[in-house]
Specification:
Helices cover 41% and strands 16% of the residues. It is of the alpha/beta class and 420 residues long. The structure holds pyridoxal-5'-phosphate (PLP).
Length: 420
């Protein structure tokens, strides 16, 4: 069945919002997507039927543990790993701080850490904080002309002193998809650990942690139709050796060793349901998956999830390319992103010469066109692009519920602003 955006839209109650007589167009997906009704229902169901703390010998506690256990398996299918390699936390940033401090405890003679200029602060700040503990933090160059990371610089900064190379799968600022497979391989050649920030990428393509072979990867469910919950992957051998700070009463086994305190149970229920939603899109609109041809041994659910991710991307990518081409035709508009033949997400950022990006976003917002402006915490990237004094970027994030008509509305509005 071909992708039916109207069917997809019907699943999201928030999309009916009106602003000043205009239907709201949610182009703010990279900041957080909207939530299908079934995710809301799953969270309500948790609170009605299962609301209890973990490990009790009574019905609601057992129900609660079952919901979390199911969600863990669903998220494992989402990432392509085993359930006990998946931990939940407050958000990506907090999990990454926990990871950074844990890894710093067992660093031995490896005293250097690589971060990148393209990354969100969430994958820079926790590592920069380790300077206080005597680590040297090196930054991999971002090339403002190609809008890509400089992989030669990455390679030249790796050494047998590198403890961790931390980099993003894709840029939340400009949509560049980094060559993460190559970066993981390069880092492993010198014995460094890899930490991949998949927060932006996770809505834009299937993540396969086994194929990627990263040691750690973190994402956030609110970027893929879920509530505000962080999702952590640790490859078993690395995770089992991770010296996470934990309470005496907290289990030492994975995945619990990094799960401090009581988790956001209803959020975890919603996160699992968000992935089930993606799997159902795969069932409805995805291409049948030939696991024999790919040599992958995947669960039925993972096959449907991957098909769902691909169906959404097949829908969004042509729209993104159309948007880029049309923006580039508008006088004074400059689009920032990787070269046309390089992998990218459907997140498109631009500026209008002589007009502050905050002003552009505010005007679009009045017309119900929800775009972000500024640096979106990818502040180093925006500094390198030289846009800090002009309000940063205007970011249009396409999600699987955006339509061609919404893009046309946006283009007309941008053109009007640029022509003034
Ligand atoms: C690429 C990227 N990394 C990390 C984060 C931070 O995620 P969280 O809000 O879960 O801490 C974001 C949030 O926008 C992001 O886009």
């Amino acid at each position: 069945m071909t992708y039916d955006v109207q069917y997809v839209r019907q699943q999201f109650p928030a999309l009916n919002l009106m602003v000043n007589g205009h239907a709201a167009a949610f182009f703010d997906g990279p900041g957080g997507t909207q939530v299908p009704q079934r995710v809301i229902d799953a969270m309500v169901d948790y609170l009605v039927r299962c609301n209890a703390n973990s490990g009790g010998s009574f019905l609601t506690s057992r129900n609660s543990d079952q919901v979390i256990c199911n969600a863990r398996q669903v998220l494992a299918d989402f990432l392509g790993c085993a359930a006990d390699e998946v931990a939940f936390g407050q958000n990506m940033t907090t999990l990454n701080y926990q990871l950074a401090f844990a890894l710093s405890r067992e660093a031995g003679s490896r005293r250097e850490i690589l971060i990148t200029e393209i990354d969100h602060e969430a994958n820079r700040g926790p590592w920069l904080a380790l300077a206080e503990r005597g680590f040297e933090i090196k930054e991999v160059r971002f090339d403002p002309d190609s809008c890509m990371l400089d992989l030669e610089d990455f390679l030249s900064k790796l050494s047998e002193k590198t403890l961790v190379a931390a980099f993003s799968y894709a840029s939340n600022g400009i949509g560049t998809v980094n060559d993460v497979h190559r970066m993981v391989h390069m880092a492993h050649q010198v014995g460094a650990l890899t930490v991949v920030d998949a927060v932006h990428f996770a809505l834009h393509g299937p993540v396969d942690v086994r194929e990627l072979n990263t040691d750690f990867l973190i994402c956030s469910a609110y970027k893929f139709f879920g509530p505000h919950v962080g999702v952590f992957y640790g490859r078993r051998d690395c995770f089992e050796n991770l010296s996470a700070y934990r309470l005496r009463v907290q289990p030492e086994q994975i995945p619990y060793r990094i799960e401090t305190g009581t988790l956001n149970h209803e959020g975890i229920a919603g996160a699992g349901e968000a992935v089930e939603f993606i799997a159902d899109l795969g069932e409805k609109f995805g291409q049948p998956f030939d696991t024999e041809a790919t040599g992958k041994v995947w669960s039925e659910r993972r096959r449907r999830i991957v098909a769902g991710m691909k169906a959404m991307e097949d829908y969004e990518q042509p729209l993104a390319h159309k948007l880029i081409r049309a923006l580039e035709q508008i006088d004074r508009v400059r689009v920032y992103g990787p070269p046309a033949d390089s992998p990218r997400t459907s997140t498109v950022s631009f500026t209008i010469e002589g007009i502050n990006s905050e002003k552009v976003a505010a005007e679009l917002g009045e017309k119900g066109l929800f775009v972000w402006d500024g640096h979106f915490y990818a502040i180093r990237l925006v500094e390198v692009l030289g846009l800090m004094n002009s309000g940063g970027l205007v970011r249009v994030g396409l999600s699987p519920y955006n339509t061609e008509q919404e893009i046309e509305r946006l283009l007309i509005a941008v053109k009007r602003i640029a022509e003034r």
